[in-house]
Every structure is written in structure tokens, then in C-alpha cells.
Amino acid sequence: MKKLSRKLLTFVLLATLLSCKCYLQQLPTQLVYVDSNCIAMIPDYLPAVTVLGNCDDDVVTQTPPAGTIMDEPYGTVTIKAIDEFQNADSIVFDIIRVDNIAPVLTMDTTLINAYVPPVSVDSMILVTITGPGDAGTFGALTKPGKHVVIMDDRQFNKYMQ
Length: 161
Prior knowledge:
The protein is mainly beta. The protein folds into 2 domains: 22-98, Immunoglobulins (Immunoglobulin-like), CATH 2.60.40.10; 121-160. Helix content is 14%, strand content 36%. The protein is built from 2 helices and 10 strands. The strands form 3 sheets. Strands 2-6-5-4 form a 4-stranded mixed sheet, with no helix packed on it. The termini are far apart. Mean pLDDT is 72; it is low at 4-20.
């Protein structure tokens, strides 16, 4: 009975070692913050991942690698672990580029205090144009806050603006 138990235990251990599968701990969506130059570089997520498996020689890679500049507002990162028996596991998680620093507006207050009232005059200036085809009256009427232009070409066509 002991021999059978040992053989069974040896078989289970051997089968386990030969089917050494790496299991990666999952990561939630990650936020990648832009720096002062509005550049978001993908960080190294490998230290945040735990590889569980029967083999110690696991190779763990990250795609895109750490230091890659994010060109798009959203992306994905793949982390893959592979052991010496070519058993592999991978996880894919989302990354979001974030700028959480709002722009700050400042204003020169001397512009606010430098009030200059508009210049307006109540007057009517008439200019008479004489000549073939050009005859008419041109007037510019200025009212407070408005400027009205009146033209009359003596054909009773008037233009007001």
C-alpha cells in the first residue's frame, strides 16, 4: 500500500512539475498621470505583479514596456509570464491617461482699473459727391454708443448701416 501511495505521489508531483503553469495576479485599470510637459509615460508594472507557479525560472515581460509615451488617452498593457516548460499566462489591463491639474488663470488688475470712457459725439457730417454716376450724399451720424452711415445716390436708393 505504501508503494502504491509513493508511486501515486511521485506521479502527481511529476505531472505537476511538467505542467507547471504560471498564474498572474490580476491588476485593475491603472491611471497614468501626465507630467509638467503633458507627457504620460507608462510605468513599470512588473513589481506590482505576483507570479505563482511551480517553477522558479519564470520570464515576465510587459508590453508596451515601461517608459513608453502614451499617445492616446486610453490603452492596454499586457504582462506575460512564461516558464522553462513554455507554460504561460498573461493578463491584460486598461490604462487611462489623466491630467488632474487644472490650468490657472491670472489677470493683470491694472487693465480692469484703467477705464477709458468711449468718445462719442452727437453730430452729422454730410459729404456731397458730384460727378457723373457718382452723385449723391454721404452722411455719417454719430450717436452715443452708435455710428450710423447713411448714403443716398439721388435715385432714392438709401443705404443705412
